[in-house]
Specification:
Layout (H helix, E strand, L loop, with lengths): L7 E5 L15 E8 L13 E3 L3 E8 L5 E10 L4 E2 L3 E3 L13 E5 L2 E6 L11 E6 L8 E2 L14 E5 L2 E6 L11 E8 L2 E8 L13 E5 L2 E6 L11 E8 L2 E8 L10 E8 L2 E6 L2 H4 L2 E8 L2 E8 L13 E5 L2 E5 L4 E2 L2 E2 L3 E7 L2 E8 L15 E5 L2 E5 L12 E7 L11 E2 L1
Parallel strand pairs: 1-31, 6-33
Antiparallel strand pairs: 1-32, 2-32, 3-4, 4-5, 5-7, 8-9, 9-10, 10-11, 12-13, 13-14, 14-15, 16-17, 17-18, 18-19, 20-21, 21-22, 22-23, 24-25, 25-28, 26-27, 28-29, 30-31
Length: about 425
């Protein structure tokens, strides 16, 4: 049975308000705080996040005047009781909006970064870079896809595991306009070589295949949230398996209860023998997450995870983090006291069943802009990051980041982290 204790590292623009928790649940406490180094010029600090055992990666790209700037990623080294100063990385020689950092994945000492708006070789053609840990995390090595064109948005989703990289290009026109594709790269010595380009076997226009990807061992999950098997934007997830270096489609997942505008496949994540899939449009946009278990080489639907008090427009499943029997799900559209505040839901695996554990919101504490807390989620082992965006009109506010520990018994809480 999985442990019932996990930590949450929460990223948001407002300060941490008192989370709403049942009396019997463990309490949360702030163990560290991060503030966007650029102040109000970085109101998009937290638009995407990624986590490894030693690093927190936070993306940012909005300028103070509201005009998008070239993206950047800030990397913070972390340990039990401290947080290091950030290292900022960017795409080389870019001076226009490229959305660098819109998608990220950390794997050990490697950081994979997508820039779907990169227009160096054509408008919104997209790009992706792989960085390795050193004193500066740079320079990055550009991945070189074949057959991409303007508008493909290569880099809209990324995943790295072992010797393989998957990069989504959800607006590729290989099977019709915006049908989508996924480019796979295999490590070859110190470099990466494109192995194959995947498309949905039944792909058609506006499926957006590749808008979400997840890799684990021989398995690749690809979301196509606008697939229309059971009505407009029902959504689907394609499963591919690697056998001797060849990736082949083996299964298409569509929930039995799926219907129009469910947007199943918006997000995907593996955790051990489980695959979790976000469906942001379920039940009038309340949103849900479906859990599939690997049984005899087939992924079998086992449960649907939903908020206990979800409301229309929550968009639960917009972001996902999953690891070691814990799933953290973003609901950035949640309305609190008449304003879009967002929130997250936490589920844990207990005796082979996923159970709801708690909800957490960001609070306001004097900040004026909607936080859309839960826009992004990153997770590795006991660490979780939850990101937000600020795209509202009005005075911009600096992005902030809180590390929050979910305590178990009082004597096991540990020491608070200190930024340095």
């Amino acid at each position: 049975m999985a442990s019932r204790t996990c930590w949450l590292a929460v990223l948001l623009t407002g300060s941490l308000g008192a989370p709403t928790l049942p009396d019997e649940e463990p309490r949360y406490r702030v163990t560290g705080r991060l503030i966007a180094p650029g102040g109000s010029a970085e109101r998009q600090f937290g638009k995407a996040v990624a986590v490894s055992d030693r690093w927190l990666a936070i993306a940012s790209d909005r300028g103070e005047d509201g005009v998008l700037d070239p993206g950047s990623v800030l990397l913070y080294e972390v340990d039990v009781d401290w947080i290091g100063r950030p290292v900022r990385i960017t795409a080389p020689a870019r001076d226009w909006p490229d959305e660098f950092g819109s998608a990220m994945d950390l794997c050990g000492t490697r950081l994979l970064v997508g820039a779907p708006g990169d227009s160096e070789l054509g408008w919104d053609r997209g790009a992706a870079w792989i960085f390795r840990e050193d004193a500066t995390w740079g320079p990055g090595v550009a991945l070189k896809p074949s057959g991409t064109g303007p508008g493909d948005r290569f880099g809209d989703s990324v995943a790295i595991d072992g010797s393989w990289i998957a990069v989504g290009a959800p607006r590729s026109d290989r099977r019709g306009v915006d049908s989508g594709a996924v480019h796979l790269f295999e490590q070859d010595g110190s470099g990466w070589v494109e192995g194959t380009v995947l498309v949905a076997p039944d792909g058609s226009g506006s499926d957006f295949f590749g808008d979400a990807v997840a890799l684990q061992g021989p398995w690749l999950a690809v979301g196509a949230w606008a697939d229309d098997d059971r009505g407009e934007k029902t959504g689907a997830v394609w499963i591919f398996r690697n056998r001797d270096g060849a990736w082949r489609s083996v299964q298409k997942l569509v929930p039995e209860e799926g219907g129009a505008h469910g947007r199943f496949g918006w997000t995907v994540a593996f955790t051990g023998e489980w695959l979790v899939v976000g469906s942001t449009g379920w039940n009038d946009d309340r949103g849900a997450v479906y859990a599939f278990r690997l049984e005899d080489d087939r992924w079998v639907a086992r449960s649907r995870l939903a908020s206990r008090d979800g409301r229309p427009g929550d968009w639960l499943g917009f972001a996902l983090g999953a690891d070691r029997g814990c799933v953290v799900v973003g609901a950035p559209g949640r309305i609190v006291e008449g304003r879009m505040e967002g929130g997250i839901e936490v589920f844990v695996l207990e005796e082979e069943a996923w159970r709801w554990r708690t909800s957490l919101g960001a609070g306001r504490d004097g900040f004026e802009q909607p936080s859309q807390f839960g826009w992004s989620v990153g997770m590795h082992g006991p660490r979780v990051m939850v990101g937000r965006i600020d795209d509202a009109d009005g005075v911009p506010e600096a992005g902030r980041a809180w590390l929050v520990e979910r305590c178990g018994p009082p004597d096991s809480a540990g020491s608070p982290s200190k930024a340095r």
